[in-house]
Design brief:
The complex is a heterodimer. Chain A is an all-alpha fold. Chain A is built from eleven helices and no strands. Chain A has one domain. Chain B has one domain (10-232): 3-Layer(aba) Sandwich (Rossmann fold), CATH 3.40.50. The chains are: A mainly alpha, B alpha/beta.
């Protein structure tokens, strides 16, 4: 069975990518909220926010917006998986001699590709609005690597409600807290302006270290410890979510 | 049929399955001879679908054993999956993909060579060639069901499970499905079909088992089942055309299945 794991995953990923190509609105709606937030924060609120750094506000807040983009994009990952579970197609796949993990991997890889497409759109709009970076190719690759890890971790988290939800709202509703998380982080304002407990939460949740790392990469500053904390969070979340999702899946199909 | 010497294609022994306090299957036994059509007859909720899900490795039985083509469904599920295909109650087609893409998808997942040719052959066989490049979501109920069955036949699995294959179909589409099932069996495929329509079992099945309250209460050929009741008495009844005869006669000329007009409905005098 494992001999076909790669080709089965490829075939099934091709299938769900075709779904996205035939209704590209999911990629665009994923990008719309982050773009609206970009406009709001840069042109309405940003003028009154003092980040304490010399850089432009859009440079400061783009990393957080990118994470919000991913958090809203994975709602569709859960949604697509949920639809497969509802129709008979999931059972058809399960009754066929295919590698069983490939069904989930196909959804996760599709999620990754769709989210990267949304990220490209958001970064494009940010460039038009004045985002500038002197980041080298290596810096960009590092930033992309972290965004990919974060997307994979959140996609595996999304698999869990996708497999277990009873309704469409349940399948996608889990993403709201994730979308909200960057607001209580260093994404939009420096954490030292927050009251004690909030600042403590903000400094010790995954988004802050990821945002700080991305911001440092784009600003060509030393990333320092934040990189390792960010990597630790991404890999840790990825492993835990993967194990949780596959455990649910195994229970579901056995 | 010369199946006496061969091992049964499907063997079900003392299968039980409960969902919490609901004892759906309470010791089900039957064999299905290779190359035959076996109908599992029962009302809604009798446990037909549960049994099909167990045989197609989607669900584990609480106790008992079941083998398909000699492979145990719980200890060798991968081998069972290579031998079977399942057409469930809800047409399991991908509505976003075209009919042709659906067939190619299944052919690729079965790791067959030349998926495109396989897809085109099946489209032709199921009169879907013209609709092959349309999204399956735009198909009528009958077309969708035909595509569903065509997808099940990709790779010619020796055992086919059809769970209520004609539920929700109009009379013509039903007859088309029946013809398909008969052709399959003539080609040597073993078919287990569940149905709640008595005439469907009567039309198609070599053997009929009645599943009621979690057990098989009767299992035999149509003739054997008929003998359970007192011998037929001869009465003369004016033969009225059934509404189905009328319907098929009226719409039959315009349908694309003119190769076999409505013969099945004529022989129901007792």
């Amino acid at each position: 069975m494992t001999a076909h794991a790669l080709s089965d995953t490829g075939t099934l990923t091709g299938r769900s990518l075709r779904h996205i190509l035939r209704s590209p609105d999911t990629i665009i709606t994923t990008a719309i909220t982050p773009i609206a937030l970009l406009l709001l924060f840069v042109y309405v609120l940003g003028g009154a926010i003092n980040t304490g750094t010399g850089e432009s506000y859009i440079n400061y807040m783009l990393p957080g917006i990118l994470l919000i983009t991913i958090a809203s994009g994975i709602a569709y990952t859960a949604y697509r998986l949920f639809l497969d579970m509802q129709g008979g197609i999931f059972e058809r796949f399960q009754s066929m001699p295919i590698s069983r993990p490939s069904v989930l991997w196909a959804h996760v890889l599709t999620s990754l590709i769709a989210n990267l497409a949304s990220l490209v759109i958001v970064i494009g709009v940010a460039l038009i609005m004045g985002f500038r970076t002197g980041a080298s190719v290596v810096d960009w690759l590092a930033a992309a690597g972290i965004l990919i890890l974060f997307t994979l971790a959140l996609s595996w988290i999304a698999v869990m409600p996708g497999l277990t939800a009873k309704t469409i709202d349940g399948a996608s509703g889990f993403s709201y807290p994730l979308i909200f998380l960057p607001f209580i982080s260093s994404a939009f304002v420096p954490t030292d302006s927050m009251p004690g407990p909030v600042a403590w939460f903000a400094e010790n949740q995954p988004v802050t270290s990821i945002v700080n790392t991305l911001r440092a990469l784009f600003a060509q500053e030393p990333v320092g410890n934040d990189l390792w904390i960010a990597l630790g969070w991404c890999v840790g979340l990825l492993v835990v979510a993967y194990l949780g999702a596959t455990a649910i899946y195994r229970k579901k199909i056995s | 049929m010369t199946t006496t010497a061969r091992e049964p294609a499907i063997r079900v022994q003392a299968i039980t399955k409960s969902f919490k306090d609901l004892h759906v299957l309470q010791g089900v036994d039957f064999d299905v001879a290779a190359g035959s059509i076996f109908a599992l007859l029962g009302s809604n909720g009798a446990g037909k679908t549960t049994l099909v899900r167990i045989l197609s490795t989607l669900l584990k039985a609480d106790s008992g054993t079941a083998t398909v083509q000699g492979f145990d469904v719980s200890s060798a599920p991968a081998d069972v999956r290579k031998s079977i295909s399942l057409t469930g109650q809800f047409a399991a087609v991908d509505e976003v993909l075209t009919g042709r893409e659906n067939l190619i998808l299944i052919a690729k997942l079965r790791h067959l060579k030349d998926p495109g040719t396989i897809a085109d052959d099946l489209l032709a066989r199921f009169s879907l060639t013209d609709a092959g490049n349309r999204k399956a979501g735009t198909y009528s109920g009958g077309m969708r069901r035909r595509l569903d069955i065509a997808m099940s036949l990709v790779g010619n699995p020796p055992v086919v499970f059809l769970d209520e294959p004609t539920t929700g179909l109009d009379p013509q589409a039903r007859i088309e499905v029946w013809q398909t099932v008969k052709q399959l069996a003539e080609g040597g495929t073993t078919i287990l079909l569940t149905t709640q329509y008595l005439d469907e079992a009567e039309q198609l099945a070599d053997r009929i088992a009645i599943l009621h309250k979690g057990t098989i209460i009767q299992n035999g050929t149509l003739a054997e089942l008929k003998q359970l009741l007192p011998a037929a008495k001869v009465e003369y009844i004016e033969k009225q055309p059934s509404l189905e005869d009328v319907f098929l006669a009226l719409v039959g000329e315009t349908s694309d299945t003119a190769d076999q007009p409505a013969t099945p409905a004529g022989e129901e005098s007792r």
